[in-house]
Amino acid sequence: MRRNKIKKSAVALHTLLFGVALIQLYPLIWMILFSLKDNTENFYTNIMGLPQIWRWENYINAFSGDLSMYFLNSVFYTAATIIVSGILSAMAAYAITRMKWKFNNFTLALFLLGIMVPIHAALLPLYIVLDKIGIMDSYWALLIPYIAFAIPMNIFILTGFLRSIPRELEEAAFIDGCGIYMMFFRIILPIIKPALATISIFTFLGTWNELMFANTFVNSSQYRTLTVGIMSFAGQYSTDWGLIGAGMVIATLPTILIYFLLSKQVQDSLTAGAVKG
């Protein structure tokens, strides 16, 4: 009797979890089906069902235009932001937490103030500054704000990791003749790999999906990101929504691939970041 109750509760639990998973996955499934229909099916004759005609040409048309260039731009912006902000944040966090100097706590507080500044509040000042120094409508117009806004959160996470490292490890390395740079690159960086994975994930999500800066600071199509490029598919008098759906699926694929290929590493890094921080 007890085993039957356990089996019934397990079946009920799995059924509930399956229903929750289906609810969570349905928007993605609907978006894929949306990208394979024309406007008539999407809005009038076949809103929820499978496509009557599978229009794979929507993906071909999307990539035959400028979408491939927008995709590569987003990859460039995201990769450069992850690498540069990761290196700068790791070096700054190491200097703040492991070196003794007068203004280390003040410097940390100054960096952490950046977390409190919303993007909307910085939009107009950034526009004026970028226009004054003459780098509007260029790669630098997006790279500099992306890197600057990624650093505060990165430093917040990395300082928690670095403070958990015993100082005896560094003292022993210094006795063996290790310099400050060798100490950082050969000893500290391998230890904080979980933290680096954590900040890389956060930076990827924030940069890849960013729209406001990309839509404000860049006008030329050669510098546009994927999110702005998809928005530009909407016409003034008519819009091919299947084409926009194909672009949205393409923009979502990198995040899905990262989850499937690196799901364990993502979970471990987030757990480690929560424990260490």
SSE layout:
Layout: H1 2-35, H2 39-45, H3 57-64, H4 67-98, H5 104-116, H6 119-132, H7 140-163, H8 167-175, H9 180-191, H10 193-208, H11 212-217, H12 226-231, H13 241-276
Uncertain ranges = 273-277
Overall number of structural domains = 2
Distance between the termini: 47 Å
CATH class (first level) name of the largest domain: Mainly Alpha
Average of pLDDT? 84
What is the N-to-C succession of helices and strands?
HHHHHHHHHHHHH
- Approximate helicity band: over 70%
SS element count, helices: 13
What percentage of the residues does DSSP assign to strands (E)? Answer: under 5%
Characterize the biggest β-sheet.
Answer: none
User: Do you know the CATH architecture of the largest domain?
Assistant: Orthogonal Bundle
User: Tell me, what's the shape?
Assistant: flat
- Gyration radius, rounded: 24 Å
Description:
78% of the residues lie in helices and 0% in strands. With 277 residues, it is mostly helical. The protein folds into 2 domains: 2-35, no CATH class; 64-276, Orthogonal Bundle (MetI-like fold), CATH 1.10.3720. The longest helix is centred in the C-terminal third of the chain and has 36 residues, at 241-276. It starts with a helix and ends with a helix. Mean pLDDT is 84; it is low at 273-277.
